[in-house]
């Protein structure tokens, strides 16, 4: 997926769209009062899961996008 920006195209990294959609889903479901802190915790949990050997959400999202 590329996004037009001025006269150039910016390429969105593989899996990024899916990663953000996951965050948006959780924000809408939880309705946190501090979205920035919630996002930081959300991404920290994903990082811990990835480091523990679970499926990498970015790699998985990239597969879904293709």
From TrEMBL:
InterPro entries: cAMP_dep_PK_reg_su_I/II_a/b, DD_CABYR_SP17. Residues 14-51 form the RIIa domain. One of its GO terms (molecular function) is calmodulin binding. This is SP17 protein. It comes from Formicarius rufipectus. The gene is Spa17.
